[in-house]
Amino acid sequence: MHADEKMTYETWPAAPEKATLEAKNKFLGFWLFLGGETVLFASLFATYLALKDKVPNSEHYLAKDLFDLPLVFMATMLLLTSSLTSVYAMYHMKNFDFKKMQLWLGITVLLGAGFLGLEIYEFNHYVHEYHHTFTSSAFGSAFYTLTGFHGAHVAFGLAWIITLMVRNSGRGLDLYNAPKFYVASLYWHFIDVVWVFIFTVVYLMGMVG
Amino acid sequence: MANHQPTSGNPRVDIEYRRKKNKEEMKHQVTSFSLMIFLTLIAFFAVGYGYSHWFIAPFIILLAVIQVIFQLYYFMHMSHKGHEAPSLFLYSGVTVGAITVLAFSTIIWW
Known about the structure:
The complex is a heterodimer of chains A (209) and B (110).
Chain A: H1 21-51, H2 63-66, H3 69-94, H4 98-130, H5 138-167, H6 178-207
Chain B: H1 11-49, H2 53-75, H3 84-107
């Protein structure tokens, strides 16, 4: 099958994300990238664990004084739900339903934007109410590098999905863009995988000391 | 296996079969989503109730690992055929990552 072939509901393959050679390469290359991302985030987690609550004097707030469970819970629910909505988008992609795929991707983007909004509010709150900044302590540096890197991934993922949606809005689905949507959804799930460990290791374990 | 295509010779029948398979898979996805939400709730409640630190830390990490397995194998389709290379890449990353975390969290004991 060729990437530029005009597809119909009848000719749409069962696994459009791997139907062409380019798609297969993209799939393989992207998983290699995710393996690298795992190492990247693991090293940031390791740094955070080593520097948690390492502050120069007692005037600085520690993890258990800073974090707010309801806010983190809200953020977690938003991101977890956005992971499911992107599964719905890929479900419609496999059934060659471009409009429904776009709709679910749109919902995913809204939920992701909600998460990002909460995180910006949270950081702003820490900086202004607690003077917990990137340069205030080793703890601050490690915290903002880890959560900030994740937040940057969310922002990049949003920009990526929005770009794909806009760029292909007039084209409909074909074997050229289906792998692109699929890979973007893998990236989005991976962001959620990292967040599961962030809310557990940083926030929940931070609350119990 | 959702991507399996029967060769009945009638493409219309094949498509109906595939659609049905996709729908079934989507149901499993919703089930795993519910389980993930449930695990998240347990983790937050466990911390909210304030059990001992020595119990909570390993417990919520275990919940996180289970949740991530759901995410990888269902949402990211690693349970499907043709994911041998992705598994190799991911588990290599996890191995290096685990050693890094182990090294950094033990080096601060001295």
